[in-house]
C-alpha cells in the first residue's frame, strides 16, 4: 500500500504507474491549461478566517442532500472511462458511495453499465446525461435510468462541442481505444497497468454496448437548448440537476425553468480555457438564485481546505473528480479509501481551525480583505 497523505501524493504516484496516454487524459485541461492554473491560483489566494477559543471538539461533516444525510461533505463527480485508472474502478467508487451515503455520479460514458453501478452503490447514484445528436439515443438512456431506479438526473450542459485538450491529442487518445505503435510502446513501458488491464478486458463505454450502437465522443452536442431542458423536465419525475453553469443569468433562467439544483463547474477546466474561475463565480450565482436554492460545486478541489472554501462561498454540496482516479491508480481500492479519509480529515481539521463545527458556513469564514 503506497503512502498517500494528500491528493498530490496520489497524483504523483499515478503519474508513475499509468501509461502517459491515460494519465494525460485524466489530468489534462483545455488549451494551454491556463484556465486550470487560474482556478488553482484562485483557491490558493482565498484565505480562511482562523478563530480561537471556540469549542470545536465535536464536528459534523454530514450534509443534508435532497432529504438524506451524507457521511461526507463531498460526492463523486461523473467521470468517463474510470476503469482506465484501474480495473474495476467504477465499482470501487460505487462501494465507496454506498459506505459514505454520498452520490456516485454515473457518467453517460462510464466503463460500467448504469444498472450494476446503482446496485453496487445501494441506490446512492445519480445518472449524468449528455445530450447528443438529435437526442434519440439520449432519451433512451433517460428511460433506462428511470427503469434502473435512478432518482436524480444530472444534465451536463457545458460540452456543446468537446474541448481541445492538447496533451491527450498528442498522445493519440481516442474513445473507444485505438492502439497504434506509440500506444503499444507506452503500454509496454507500464507493464503493471497493462497486464492488469489486459486480464480485466479493455475498458469500453458500457452503456452504449447495451444499446447496440457506438458512442462518438466527438459528436456535436450543440443542438441542446431550453426546449430540450423543458422536454427533459417533463420526462423526468425525479430530481433534475444541471451541471456546468458559470453564469449568473443562466443560473436564474435554469431556476425559473424548474430544475432542482445547479452545479457550478468548469468541467475541471477541460472545456474552455478562458472560462471564469468557478470558485469566484460561485458567490455571484448564489446571489442570483437566492439563499435557499440547492447549489453544488465541482472543479479544482484538491483538499479539505478547498472543500471548506467552496461551502463558505455558497455551495450546499461539493463533488470530487480526478483526484479519486489518481488514488485508484496509486493504490487500488485501498488507495481510494486512504485518500477519501485524508480528505475527510483535512476538512474536519480545517473546520476546527476556523472555529466551526459543521459545513453550515457563510462568507464570514473567509478572511476579511481576501480576494473573493
Automatic annotation (TrEMBL):
Keywords: Flavoprotein, FMN, Oxidoreductase. This is Alpha-hydroxy-acid oxidizing protein. Residues 1-372 form the FMN hydroxy acid dehydrogenase domain. Its cofactor is FMN. InterPro entries: Alpha-hydoxy_acid_DH_FMN, FMN-dep_DH, FMN_HAD. Signal peptide: none annotated. It holds the Pfam family FMN_dh. The lineage of its organism: Bacteria, Pseudomonadati, Pseudomonadota, Alphaproteobacteria, Rhodobacterales. Coiled coil: none annotated. The keyword Oxidoreductase applies. GO terms for molecular function: FMN binding; oxidoreductase activity. It comes from the Bacteria.
Amino acid at each position: 500500500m503506497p503512502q498517500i497523505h494528500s491528493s498530490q501524493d496520489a497524483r504523483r504516484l499515478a503519474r508513475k504507474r499509468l501509461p502517459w496516454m491515460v494519465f494525460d487524459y485524466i489530468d489534462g485541461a483545455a488549451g494551454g491549461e491556463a484556465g486550470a492554473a487560474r482556478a488553482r491560483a484562485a483557491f490558493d489566494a482565498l484565505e480562511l478566517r482562523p478563530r480561537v477559543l471556540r469549542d470545536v471538539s465535536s464536528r459534523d461533516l454530514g450534509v443534508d442532500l435532497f432529504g438524506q444525510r451524507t457521511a461526507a461533505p463531498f460526492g463523486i463527480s461523473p467521470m468517463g472511462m474510470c476503469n482506465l485508472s484501474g480495473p474495476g474502478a467504477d465499482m470501487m467508487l460505487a462501494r465507496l458511495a454506498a459506505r459514505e451515503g454520498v452520490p456516485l455520479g454515473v457518467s453517460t460514458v462510464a466503463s460500467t453499465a448504469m444498472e450494476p453501478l446503482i446496485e453496487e452503490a445501494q441506490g446512492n447514484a445519480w445518472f449524468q446525461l449528455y445530450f447528443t445528436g438529435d437526442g434519440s439515443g439520449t432519451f433512451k438512456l433517460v428511460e433506462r435510468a428511470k427503469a434502473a431506479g435512478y432518482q436524480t438526473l444530472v444534465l451536463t450542459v457545458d460540452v456543446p462541442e468537446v474541448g481541445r485538450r492538447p496533451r491527450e491529442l498528442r498522445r493519440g487518445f481516442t474513445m473507444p481505444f485505438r492502439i497504434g505503435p506509440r500506444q503499444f510502446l507506452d503500454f509496454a513501458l507500464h507493464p503493471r497497468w497493462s497486464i492488469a488491464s489486459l486480464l480485466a478486458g479493455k475498458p469500453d463505454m458500457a452503456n452504449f454496448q447495451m444499446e447496440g450502437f457506438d458512442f462518438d465522443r466527438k459528436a456535436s452536442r450543440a443542438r441542446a437548448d431550453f426546449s430540450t431542458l423543458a422536454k427533459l423536465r417533463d420526462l423526468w419525475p425525479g430530481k433534475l440537476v444541471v451541471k456546468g453553469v458559470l453564469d449568473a443569468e443562466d443560473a436564474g433562467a435554469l431556476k425559473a425553468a424548474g430544475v432542482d439544483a445547479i452545479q457550478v463547474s468548469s468541467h475541471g477546466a477541460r472545456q474552455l480555457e478562458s472560462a471564469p474561475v468557478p470558485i469566484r463565480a460561485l458567490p455571484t450565482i448564489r446571489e442570483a438564485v437566492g439563499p435557499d436554492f440547492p447549489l453544488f460545486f465541482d472543479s479544482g478541489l484538491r483538499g479539505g481546505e478547498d472543500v471548506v472554501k467552496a461551502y463558505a462561498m455558497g455551495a450546499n454540496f461539493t463533488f470530487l473528480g480526478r483526484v479519486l482516479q489518481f488514488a485508484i491508480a496509486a493504490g487500488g481500492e485501498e488507495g481510494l479509501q486512504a485518500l477519501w479519509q485524508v480528505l475527510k480529515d483535512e476538512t474536519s481539521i480545517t473546520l476546527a481551525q476556523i472555529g466551526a463545527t459543521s459545513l453550515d458556513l457563510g462568507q464570514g469564514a473567509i478572511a476579511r480583505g481576501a480576494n473573493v
